[in-house]
Amino acid sequence: MLPPPLNAMSNSSSDAHSPPILSSTPGLLLESYECDRFIGQPTTKTSLPTAGGSLDPTVGSHPWKISEAMYDSLCHEVDQHRASLPNEFSLPGRKMISRYLGSYFRGFHPHLPFLHLPTFSAGNMSETLVLAIAAVGAFYAFEHTNGYALYFASRAIISRQLEQRRRDSTFHLMRSFPPYAKFPTDCENGGSDPSYKSPQTLHSVAKDLDMIQALLVLVLTTSWLDGPLVNDALAMSSKLAVLVRDSLLDAPKGETESWEDWCLEEGRRRTVFAAYVVCNILTICFNITPQITVAEINLPLPCSDAEWKAATPTEWHRARRKGSLCELDFQECLRLLFSGQSLDTEVSVTAFGNYVLIQGLLQSIFFERQGSSRYSFPYSSLSVDQIRIYKAALSAWQSGWNSATESMIDPSSPHGPLAFNSTAVLRLAHIHLCADLGARTSLWSRNPQVLALAFDLQNNPFTLRSPDLEEAVLHAVYALRVPVRMGIAFVARTQTSHWSVQHAVSNFTSALLLTHWLESLYSLVAVSGVSALQPGEQNLVHMIEHLIEETHMENSLGPKIDYPRRLRRLAIAAVKLWAETCKGVQVFEIVHVIGATLAIVAENLENRAAVNV
Fold first, then answer.
1. What 3-state DSSP class applies to 28?
2. Helix (H) / strand (E) containing 72
3. Region annotation Disordered: residue ranges (predicted)?
4. Are 393 and 340 in contact (CB under 8 A)?
5. Do the beta carbons of residue 44 and residue 120 sit within 8 Å?
6. How far apart are CA 200 and CA 250, in angstroms?
7. Can you give the pLDDT at residue 53?
């Protein structure tokens, strides 16, 4: 049984520690404790594999093995770009690259499953794609030195191929006259110049797909790695967007009856969605305009997990018959959500589909915030009608998520972590909708001292009783609840292998909101007493208290009657807990930086509380 929708839970589902429902936010309730069944509990199905185990029973034992011929081809390709590589560059050995490919499928692939594992073979991939996913795999194997080497090699090859593509599509213009600029009499028999070629005829769709796949994994990985590589990520993202737009010009094929053709078409569709998600994640992390907008994607949603993992035509046909899926386009699903209609189970069954839809809603909120004039409204406020529409859309999306068979609040779900990752995006969507955080959430800087300035309590961006702020705070509390219920120490030790960076980003944003909100309450209570708190505010404070009392930070809160200082201690404890989830060994620098930033913030809050400013 899946967790019920948030707006359908009753008080009877809470335990003795559960606070009452927020009276000031009708229709939005705390997640059912029934969700705890899915948090951190072992499942009866296969979880994420161990480093030496098979990825999936449908996959051969070594589909990513690099043959000697393939390795020779990689060496030849790298030699062609030796001038663009550092002098100390050395291509890792064949067996190491094979191992890195396996590491990629264990670490990165579950979060963006656009490669079809049942038919995957490293020997059928381009050298560009092999090097790109091997680079990512090396990082997930914590062999960063080789990861950087493979990244630089892959980037050099991609740059050269894109430059050649540009030359092929433009240099011919110097050798021929475009037909649109000729009078009819200029062309013999009214025909066009045979030497003139349109750009669409100069590249291979298959090669472009490999290029898109290589770019999207590199863009996402470098955006989360060392700070200097962020500029690389943004530069590559613009090239990725151009290739995706060209790909969308290719008319999608009709209904495919053969499994092989379906695999190719579904892989193309998933690749486009993955590229869209990657560009959207850059917006989430750095508060920049997305390179690919929601309006540009007009494709059917990705298929179900069962269809995608089917290892044979027979299994595939069986999965399709069992699912009886009614395909709806991405745009049609968004239209339904914005009208407040929950998607039918048949179309919301896929975790990948729900993931791209919530990304679409978050991007739409970003554009609404960007379009709201700071010179006309305080704090770039959205109108009541705008917020109402988006609330209805988010509620409809969540209803569909709750009814989907692939949805679990568990990063080790047998269906993969996409449904779990969607919850982090949902938190961000609610927070950005109801509270204007803007550039404060940008992680462009990798200096924790700089990032900690966003938490400066002297520059509080919120009006305490501003409309819908409590709802944003509620979702920040939800973000804290997940690691608390899983266990802070457990999350710190497993986050790298199981959790997407999006959860760390969501926690950073939630900590920022919660810190400023609790400081606002502190200022209010210091002047007017605890009775000045509204019922909804009291309930939120109780929720935070109950969560922290479940952790080792319980004794740091002091007596409950010690208001308003207890409010500041709540903020300190919450920020410390979030910081602790990032203390483990990390693949990506950005998670480490978030943890270091939150640790500095907690220290600053403690110092402030000590002098009772």
1. coil
2. helix 68-79
3. 1-21
4. yes
5. no
6. 9
7. 39
Query: What is 402-425 written as a DSSP string?
Result: HH-TT--S-TT-TT-SHHHHHHHH
User: How many whole angstroms separate alpha carbon 514 and alpha carbon 180?
Assistant: 60
pLDDT for the residue 44: 34
Query: HEC states along 326-362?
Result: CCCEHHHHHHHHHCCCCCCHHHHCCHHHHHHHHHHHH
Query: Which residue positions in the chain have pLDDT lower than 50?
Result: 1-60, 190, 201-202, 378
Q: How is residue 51 written in tokens?
A: 């480093």
Is 584 part of any domain? yes
Lookup: tokens for 209: 């797909």
Distances (CA, A) of 308 to 302, 319, 421: 9, 9, 19
Only one residue has tokens 């393939």, namely 70
pLDDT, residue 354, reads 94
- List, for residues 271-292, the tens digit of each pLDDT value: 999 999 999 999 999 999 999 9
Q: For CA atoms 50, 51, 53, 56, give the dihedral sign.
A: positive
Do residues 73 and 127 make contact, with C-beta atoms less than 8 angstroms apart?
yes
Half-sphere exposure of 67 (CA within 13 A, CB side): 9
CA distance 135 to 114: 17
* Structural domains in the chain (count): 1
For residue 46, the tally of other CB atoms under 10 A from its CB is 13
Record the tokens describing residue 191, joined without a space: 């025909």
Question: What pLDDT is recorded for position 380?
Answer: 55
Q: Which long-range contacts (CB under 8 A, 24 or more apart) does 167-176 make?
A: 168/199, 168/202, 168/203, 169/199, 169/202, 169/203, 170/199, 172/196, 172/197
Give the C-alpha separation, 487 to 349, whole Å. 29
pLDDT at 10: 37
Task: Measure the CA–CA gap between 481 and 408, rounded to whole angstroms.
Answer: 15
- What pLDDT is recorded for position 415? 85
Structure tokens of 335? 């239209």
Compute the distance between CA of residue 581 and CA of residue 492 in angstroms, rounded to an integer. Answer: 4
Short-list 368, 440, 427, 367, CA closest to 394: 427
In a domain, 311, yes or no: no
Task: Judge whether 14 lies within some domain.
Answer: no
pLDDT at 504: 96
Place of tokens 């999936």: 56
| pLDDT for the residue numbered 325 | 55
* Residue environment code for 467-479, b if the CB has 16+ CB neighbours within 10 A, otherwise e: ebbbbbbbbbbbb
What residue has token string 């059928």? 124
Give the Cβ contact number of residue 8 at 10 Å: 12
Residue 109 tokens, joined: 């692939």
Report the greatest alpha carbon distance in the chain.
94
Backbone angle region of 509, left / alpha / beta, with phi > 0 → left and psi within -120 to 50 → alpha: alpha
| DSSP code at position 88 | T
**What tens digit of pLDDT does each residue of 357-397 get?**
999 999 999 999 888 755 555 455 788 899 999 999 999 99
Range of the domain at 522: 450-611
Alpha-carbon distance 68 to 65, whole Å? Answer: 10
DSSP code at position 577: H
